[in-house]
Every structure is written in C-alpha cells, then in structure tokens.
Design goal:
This protein is α/β, with parallel strands linked by helices. It has helices at residues 33-45, 70-82, 98-101, 107-113, 125-135, 148-152, 154-165, 193-199, 223-236, 256-267, and strands spanning 21-25, 49-52, 88-91, 117-120, 139-141, 172-173, 177-180, 183-192, 212-219, 244-251, 274-276, 289-291, 294-298, 303-306. It folds into two domains: 5-169, Rossmann fold (3-Layer(aba) Sandwich), CATH 3.40.50.10740; 172-306, 3-Layer(bba) Sandwich (Glucose Oxidase, domain 1).
Length: 312
C-alpha cells in the first residue's frame, strides 16, 4: 500500500563537520551585506567554509524586493546543489521571490546530485515543500545566514549548531502550551502559513497534510489574514486527516489573545492535538525544526519529540 505523502519519513541528509563547505544563496529578497558578514563570521567560527553564490548580493533592476533576477537566483541555488564539494545549502534570508524562481530549477539534475542539507524558513517554505515533493528530502526550518537569529541570538545559534553537528542532542522541543489536548504521531511538515496557503495547487506542493504533524507560524499577518489562510487550508482539504498541529510564533500579527482566538476557532474543529508557542518561526531565539522526520506531538505536555535525529 502506498502511504499518503505526509506520512512517509523523508531522506535525511548527513550532519555537518568542521571543514565542510556550505553554500550561501539568496532565493528570495535582497541581502543586507552587514548582516550577511555577521552570519558568515558565525559559520566560520563553527569551522565551516562558506562559499557565496555569485548573485548573492544582487538586487533586481525593476523590483527592489528581489535579490536579482529569477533566473540568477535559481542558477545560484542549482549550481550550489549540484556542486559535489558542497555539503549544505543555506539561505541568506527570506522576504519574497521563491515562487517566482522555483519552476526554473532543474529538479532532475538536482536529484542526480544526491541529498544534502538545506536550511531556511519564511518565504523558503515554498522550497521546503518542493524539496519534499520533488526529491523526497528532509530539510531544516531554521535561522538564516543574514538573519538576526544566527548572528545575535544565543538560543537560536546554539540550537542550530547542535542540530547541524550533534542532532541527537536536540530531539525535543518543549515549553509549549496546550491549545487542544491530545497526543499524536506523524511526520513533520509545514512552515510559514501564508506561503503554504499560497503554494496550494502548484506542482511543488503537497495536496494534503493527511497523517502528518503540521508546523505553522507566520509574521506580520493580521488576525483576519491568519483566518483567511487557515480557512483556505481547511476549504482546500489540505488539513483533512492531519494528525496534529504544532504552532510556533506569530510575531507582529497583533495581540496574541486575538491571534489565539483565531487559531482555536479554525483548528479546534479538526479534533486533533494542537500545541501553541513552541518557539520556532519569526521570533527571538527561534529554534530549528526538521521537516520530514517522524515525531510525536504531546499537547498535554507541550512537546514535539523527534523520533530520530534531524540529520544522519
């Protein structure tokens, strides 16, 4: 019997070691050079050797919200992925732009290059989905190179370091609250709510979260927009049969009591456990979440426990 996509654990890439080359690319928005340099210093301090995409610091001539042309952003990502000397591909930042370039990637060539580690979040959610659907690859939803989390926030930095180099030491996220009680097992998927909703119906997105543990977070979305995106996931059938839901941060989305009321209204009717405020997403000290690995969500304890390390 073929299992629904969200119930299948994905291929985990290997962990990193000192001396590994990691490529840094900008698939979305323009990258501030000062923040980039801070993040690169952290990677070098970990013993990694960052290599920069040729168009990493580009800006689009017509649209200043894009880091260069769609073709150049796709070319940098694909070249990094297909370079046999690169152990991991890290995104510099999110913003907007992945959905414009993801169709330009040669997924057959990238599959032939084999699995490697991929890290990012926010707009990069669309690439997490694409790597899952096109390559069956587990990825990391976590701090990006030119983001505050990697350079300035000790908790984010320490948790990402442990995930990359000693993932067996960080197999549980805890400290969450109970939105809907219960316990469920499944394979993790998800990311930024707005991107998941926008990605529905494309060739690079799953049709359903059935059997999976869906991780959701977002930033800068007013409660009615969160309502709209969740309602779209409900109406499309994407949430039919989901095993459980882990909620991260909702930074700059309005008073949390208003956001929480929307989350409860839209999700409680699914009758599955829901944990809130698990510390991942666009928040200070954001934690890294592996997507595509088997896990157990315990809403009564406020935990998400990964049954295997994020990386081999």
């Amino acid at each position: 019997m073929t299992l629904p996509q969200a119930t299948r654990p994905l291929t985990r890439p290997g962990r990193l070691a000192a001396g590994d080359r990691v490529a840094v690319v900008a698939p979305s928005g323009p990258v501030p050079d000062d923040r980039l340099q801070e993040g690169l210093d952290v990677l070098r301090g970990w013993g990694l050797e960052p290599t920069l995409g040729p168009h990493l610091l580009d800006t689009h001539a017509a649209f200043d919200y894009l880091a260069g042309t769609d073709a150049d952003r796709a070319r940098d990502l694909q070249a990094a992925w297909c370079d046999p000397g690169v152990a991991a591909v890290f995104c510099a930042r999110g913003g907007y732009g992945v959905q414009r370039m993801v169709d330009l990637l040669d997924w057959q060539a990238m599959r032939a290059a084999g699995p490697k580690l991929f890290l990012g979040f926010s707009d990069v959610t669309a690439l997490h989905e694409a790597f899952a659907v096109r390559m069956g690859l587990a990825t990391l939803h976590g701090p990006m190179v030119a983001g505050a989390g990697l350079a300035k926030e000790a908790r984010s930095q320490e948790h990402l370091y442990a995930t990359l180099f000693a993932p067996e030491t960080v197999q549980t996220l805890d400290g969450g609250g109970t939105l809907v009680p219960g316990r469920a097992a499944g394979v993790t998927l998800g990311g930024c709510l707005a991107l998941l909703a926008a990605d529905l119906g494309t060739a690079h997105a799953r049709r359903s979260a059935r059997g999976g543990l869906l991780c959701l977070e977002d930033t800068g979305e007013e409660p009615y927009r969160i309502d709209r995106a969740l309602t779209q996931l409900l109406r499309s059938g994407f949430l039919d049969g989901v095993a459980g839901i882990a909620l991260g941060s909702w930074a700059d989305c309005g008073p949390y009591d208003e956001v929480r009321a929307v989350l409860l209204d839209r999700l409680a009717g699914l009758g599955v456990p829901v944990v809130e405020e698990l510390g991942f997403g666009h928040c200070e000290g954001a934690l890294t979440v592996p997507l595509g690995v088997p896990a157990v969500l315990d809403a009564d304890r406020g935990t998400l426990r990964f049954e295997v390390p994020a990386l081999r």
